[in-house]
Amino acid sequence: MSRDTTLLILGASGDLTSRLLLPAIGQLLRREPARRLALHGAGSDDWSAQRWQEAVQTAFTSADAATQLDRVAGTTYTKADVTDRDALAGLVEGVEGPLVIYFALPPAVAVAACQVLRDVKLPENTVLALEKPFGSDQKSARELNDLLQQLVPEKRIFRVDHFLGRSTLLNVIGVRFANRLVEPVWSADHVQSVLIRYDESLALENRARYYDRAGAMIDMIQSHLLQVLAILAMEQPADLDEIDLRDAMAAALRATVIWDDNPVRSSRRGRYTAGTIGDKEHRRDVPSYVDEDGVDPDLGTETLAEITCEVRTARWAGVPFTLRSGKALADRHAEIVVTFRPVRHIPEGLTGRPDDGGVLRFVLGPDRIDLELNVNGGDDPFALRRDVLSTKLGKGTLLAYTEVISDILDGDVALSVRADAAEQCWRIIQPVRDAWNRGDVPIEDYPAGSTGPKGWATSA
Ligand code: NDP
Asked: Any one cellular component term from GO for this entry (predicted)?
């Protein structure tokens, strides 16, 4: 008889669990009535069973989930210090059937819990799911990989990257590889530059405890945006499976370095000052980052980061890939912008010579593609102007975390970050971190609600 899968969330009273994991579990159970799942939570807060059930039901009641608690095949909450061997053993030993342990914990606590797991007898086929940031530099990421691989084989380790989500990722891959209009021009011969941008209009939102130690570079660029770069730059995988796809992505990351090997000229960092975000109806006054609750100004944390990389392969050498992400900006911009080189020659007589040979823009969530073309026509057929062809890419209704959890429960690691790729992402950004730590790259101020510090390539 097949057993129910047990999902054990460590850090169950935290933000990730209530805001992202539980609604996703609810959505998954509503969509897949046949799926059987026991859901257990453990955390340092002293919650009663009733408080936990209320938290789960509240999340399940959200519009995306709209399901009932009784869809879960049993649920409990245990107050436990998960860095304590006996407490952790009590949670996992004796679980029958497949067990997934989800570490929804502060990163250092997750590492401590993994160390303790060495002395715990894990049920057969246990799966481990870890959140970003994975380690704090290349060495610690390697040590964490070694530790995890002592516990379970690589194919049962999920380094979660919810940002990509299955549908967004596959949308980019499909457009890239399935169009003769795109695939043959996907190289330095035709592409002038690539921008991967994730600007948020949200400010700190009470997340100082985590964010003030991470900053924009580690929160977004080191983890999520470098994975996007890997997808854009990789060679075509024979199959979108855990071997070929992850081999191709890891190879792209191995070839990636900071542009010109010059982290000072190829990176920028900014920090928001007080300002106002939004239009008349939705105005929010935001304090300076350094005045936000829980922020230690001495840490010098950046809230906006930009780096430029080169993928040193025959396909991409010479093309700048700029990765940028920040908080408290005027608008949300989650996009990949591929700018093509100008054509070699334009007939005499056409006016308004464009600076580039067109732009392909992937807008992320809800996913859309804009193809900016140089066109003529109309009253003055000799004048070139810009027009945009725009199309929505499928109407995905799944939450990104629903896709993540579904993959974890199904044991499909294709879209989780492989051990070597996680280490490469730290290797790529280390020269920039060193330059920043030496003070070689000053922090530039920008008012909350603006497009960023003046003079940045990607600020208006
Ligand atoms: P929180 O601090 O909100 O939650 C962590 C939880 O772990 C808290 O409930 C905390 O309890 C508990 N905890 C800490 N130490 C222990 C311990 N020794 N034993 C048991 N429980 C413990 O963090 P988040 O939920 O925001 O983040 C968790 C992970 O998810 C991080 O790695 C983060 O980077 C990642 N993540 C978070 C996202 C988000 O939007 N929140 C998005 C993407 C990733 P207490 O409060 O009592 O210390």
From this structure: cytosol
Going by alpha carbons, the residue nearest to atom 1 of ligand 1 is 14
pLDDT in tens, 268-291: 999 999 999 988 788 999 999 999
Give domain status of residue 144, yes or no. Answer: no
- Does 224 qualify as catalytic in the annotation? yes
Distance CA 384, CA 374 (A): 6
Question: For 80-111, b where at least 16 C-beta lie within 10 A, e where not — what string?
Answer: bbbbebebbbebbeebeebbbbbbbbebebbb
Atom of ligand 1 nearest to the CA of 11: 7
One domain for residues 170 and 21: no
pLDDT at site 453: 95
Q: What is the mean pLDDT of residues 356-385?
A: 92
Residue 457 lies in a domain: no
Among 8, 9, 10, 15, the mutation site with the greatest number of ligand 1 atoms within 8 A of its Cβ is 15
Domain boundaries, position 233: 164-447
Q: Is residue 288 a contact partner of residue 309, using CB atoms and an 8 Å limit?
A: no
CATH of the domain at 77: 3.40.50.720
Decide if 345 is inside a domain.
yes
| 16-73: pLDDT as tens digits | 999 999 999 999 999 998 999 999 999 999 999 999 999 999 999 986 778 888 889 9
